[in-house]
Please model this.
Amino acid sequence: MSGNSIGRLFRVTTWGESHGVATGAVGDGCPANLSLSESDIQKELNLRNPGLSPSSSARKEEDIVEILSGIFEGKTTGTPISLIIKNRDVKSGDYANLKDVFRPGHGDITYQRKYGIRDYRGGGRASARETAARVAAGAIAGKIIDLAGMEVIAYTVELGGIMADRRDLADIGGNALCCPDVEAAKKMQDRLDEAKKKGDSLGGIVEIVVKGCPSGLGEPVFEKMDAGLAGALMSIGSVKGVEIGAGFRVARMSGSECNDPITPEGFLSNNAGGILAGITNGDDIVIRVACKPIPSIEITQQTIDIYGKPETISIHGRHDVCVIPRIVPVCEAMVRIVLADHFLRHQSANGSKLFG
Amino acid sequence: MSGNSIGRLFRVTTWGESHGVATGAVGDGCPANLSLSESDIQKELNLRNPGLSPSSSARKEEDIVEILSGIFEGKTTGTPISLIIKNRDVKSGDYANLKDVFRPGHGDITYQRKYGIRDYRGGGRASARETAARVAAGAIAGKIIDLAGMEVIAYTVELGGIMADRRDLADIGGNALCCPDVEAAKKMQDRLDEAKKKGDSLGGIVEIVVKGCPSGLGEPVFEKMDAGLAGALMSIGSVKGVEIGAGFRVARMSGSECNDPITPEGFLSNNAGGILAGITNGDDIVIRVACKPIPSIEITQQTIDIYGKPETISIHGRHDVCVIPRIVPVCEAMVRIVLADHFLRHQSANGSKLFG
Amino acid sequence: MSGNSIGRLFRVTTWGESHGVATGAVGDGCPANLSLSESDIQKELNLRNPGLSPSSSARKEEDIVEILSGIFEGKTTGTPISLIIKNRDVKSGDYANLKDVFRPGHGDITYQRKYGIRDYRGGGRASARETAARVAAGAIAGKIIDLAGMEVIAYTVELGGIMADRRDLADIGGNALCCPDVEAAKKMQDRLDEAKKKGDSLGGIVEIVVKGCPSGLGEPVFEKMDAGLAGALMSIGSVKGVEIGAGFRVARMSGSECNDPITPEGFLSNNAGGILAGITNGDDIVIRVACKPIPSIEITQQTIDIYGKPETISIHGRHDVCVIPRIVPVCEAMVRIVLADHFLRHQSANGSKLFG
Amino acid sequence: MSGNSIGRLFRVTTWGESHGVATGAVGDGCPANLSLSESDIQKELNLRNPGLSPSSSARKEEDIVEILSGIFEGKTTGTPISLIIKNRDVKSGDYANLKDVFRPGHGDITYQRKYGIRDYRGGGRASARETAARVAAGAIAGKIIDLAGMEVIAYTVELGGIMADRRDLADIGGNALCCPDVEAAKKMQDRLDEAKKKGDSLGGIVEIVVKGCPSGLGEPVFEKMDAGLAGALMSIGSVKGVEIGAGFRVARMSGSECNDPITPEGFLSNNAGGILAGITNGDDIVIRVACKPIPSIEITQQTIDIYGKPETISIHGRHDVCVIPRIVPVCEAMVRIVLADHFLRHQSANGSKLFG
Model:
């Protein structure tokens, strides 16, 4: 039933539908006395907004966040931080024709079957719009992990079949696709343009790196760090796969290739992706997620209506061609939320590296 | 801190170290009046036991489960079901030489760093032995989902670089590697033999299919069915990647390829892997997990001791060459546990398909 | 850390400070397809508002609730229901003089010590104002238990030493103190008037009865129905004691007096208060809570400032003389929230009495 | 459904029936490197055992605890600590005649109605025997709070209508009833003897004091310290009321009487019972619980059988006359468990007073 909260010590609850009054988040369990302002959060939200890229939706979402509680004189007080993002520029009329028909690849059919009712306007709660609240809450988490010296960076490593050959993190900000390989970014953009022309959409892969993560975070056995990250990232609507470190490549490795040799200076490789037996080992955490193509496409598709009769559908409107780059800050937010929670858990028994 | 429980309504807690007195599980929240006997659980445990395959550890673990509570006259009573598996044939002496040195690819170094103490005998809590308790608890979950008409089947689809070309589920039981492609199984076995000779180990991929899953299971947004499955499977020590349906392949698909067309008779494809927007759609759930090679190998590796000094290590003893096939029932168990929990959650608000 | 949520299947999260922008609640896990409107919630909130009674604060809080999510075309959709109550008529200036001094009986000193910071305006998060969000969320819970045929009624049985001799529930609505004994209500009112003149405040006892509760709700052993009720009610700021059925009187009973004899027509007495071994027995649930006097009084008190220096304090402003009657709907709300959660839990394994 | 766990960071799960193979507990989340031996736990268990007092059951329960996991070389490792207490001297035959009839005041009828099945032997899971596991787990919690300088002491303040006039804690150990007033203890014993002769039973009140509790523990608003304590104590089968500090007496106080004046040296009174706004204030925590008479009595009672037909019942066997003194260590255990959990929660955000 209830499933809209994540985290045990730092716990985020989100709410809101695509075409409702607003969406929002409550961040509970943030330590007191951290500086936090609306602009700290707004900065993250802006990364998620449709920008210059033709891959992005034309719906002009200037998501403006307001802090409703939990901050006093610019600082967190330890009480729940309530955030609200009012919905603007909402044209529900666009969706009236989708009332009675299930869009392939969307949650329309499963929400209807589960609940016997659904807010069909723009996907309701299953809309990507729900992720705005995650990004806002992730900004609170960011304050916690910043203090602990951790940094989370996500970027595009594959889109429409084009792979980034390089990981030049300095280049991420320089292109609309958040790609660390500028040459690849151009080719990705070409693919997006082609897909747009065809009325189709594309998938891709986002990689997330955590730098500065201390060793010791993660709670065996069911609440391992990698288990928490996998669950949190797989909860993003478009994600169909999550891998840590060498990920699926480990299946073709031998032990002598896969084991990361240990030296007094650290590990000689990072196939583990910074996590051993569910606990961080002090190396960078490296995660990749596979994002499916946006299911709303103009190309005509076969489907059924809510009465079970065959239908065809061609979806017009303000849709992105790919969840990249807008999903990039969402991935960062989810990783920050998991890290903040695990950092606080670790503190509970292992004393204060931070707040002492 | 506490991290050894999973599930909200059907909740499993496991405990125990590789070379302690015993391992066990408590299954809490099982509905009353289900038939459950030790042999129901033993049957599953036996699947995890070292069998004929040379890939398996020579440690003779006849894991015998005992039910300590929760059953009365052969039926569940709704109270916690406590299971114990006593450790036998334990040779702690084998591990004395590992007291002061960290084995690459193992949790030795992270447990030491997190806790400042570790039970170094056989990996302690981080041992694969911990999964025996999962399998035992999974057998309880199996009773719940059996009733609901769900069936979970896992099998090997890749090992040491050899891929199964076929999914002939009838063949799974006919080979030691639980592979649905008998020809591939032979080649996989050859690879295992080679690796064993070299003192090395191998990785692989296990696929899990859920048949008969009703539509409507899974709780948006953070407790989606796929999020739960990903977290549960990633909590298995060897797993470094989880994908649902088309998984990482979606990154290279277009929307028109990836979306599963809907017809009155059902979906025409299953790239979604049976889950849309985190809720089951009535189709088979399909999951794949990437398993890393067993880190304990005879080949000499570079490492450090607990004082930080460089060391080399060659690990002898009764180790498997690959976690396959022993991980197969563990994957099934974790999926059953997640399904049982989600089935009960769904019941809570949507009425009784089962117990009415 | 995070502690602002209650419930497992129906989960309520509240947020907001007395003198912040707003307070609110998120109700997650409400079944779909229940009718719910703002007026359903407003009706409950109005009961908590300062009314005619001189015992009530002069702060004119017309708490207007807005539903921000989770409702579509007048019905719940199964997604989180976000409620907001904007703060109006807030005079923070009133509290500037309390910035540096701890009010006896208040949370000022403990919040300061726990968090090292506090929103001193009107008690911040520790204000009774926080309970508005509970009442609003309780109205959602009310929809669930209404359907199940349960009814929750709270009323005043003691105030300022005056005890209600009768339990004429029809009289509750007819007096400002929600007392089922009109004669006693008059005497209570006299006591309130006296206390007000002295600049003092008074305590009292509220009794809560649940009618129509089916047998079988409550989960042994730590999540018994009475344990859940006690925790939920004790979480109300003013409550210092909770008792079920005969409550503290059981200490002076013999077994032959205390045991409720069972007959085919039901129990002959109700010392159990409707709960046996943590599970409802089908009889009325009866609970009493002891409410302390409001700590803000004009009478001069001894205290210290935030630097530890002795101070005296006389608190002027818009304070109630007694938490009764405003706490009455808060008690009802907490009981409804616990019942709704337990009802859904029970459904999960025992099939649908309601939603089938 | 699942309801046999308590705590968030330090989490205890218990299992076992009165006449099953064993009862036990899993303590998860205990910090590493604490010394813990079976004798530490046995010491607590012995306090719960039938001793010299004629008020105690004649069933000779030498509860012997075994540690099955989580300890290595005498120290906690941070992994789950599994405890088992095997049932001995069990005569199920004694209970065969109770198979078809509901004992008044017991959970027989509610378990049967909830689950449709029950282990009728000795009350099954609803037996007071279940509390042995609580006491064992409480000993682990004791190790955590010992370190933090907290001490929990429970004692009898009322039994069969006799009240202790004094609180001479040094006298608690000197009488079989754990009463801090030796004179009162004698009168209580007389009452017990009388009740035993009549085949009846008696109730009483236990007071629990926590000394040395630091200020700042407890998480507003639903997870306040007092809410946690009330829920934990009310989960003990016999408890029908819980009060903190002045408890129900606050109902008759004025604010000027009830508020504890604050001075640089501390509070001048302790009506708050050490908790303000749900957070500990550094003073002693004081709690009282009302315990009902043991429902198993020889005096003939009116009841029904499982088919709903009227019956009379006279219960013979090895029953105590009063839950006091055996409930005393159970109360201590529950308070220790709550304190340990809250201590760890507080640590998570507020740094290490202990483990640094």
Helices of chain B lie at 38-47, 108-115, 131-147, 182-198, 225-234, 255-258, 327-350. Chain B has a mean pLDDT of 93.
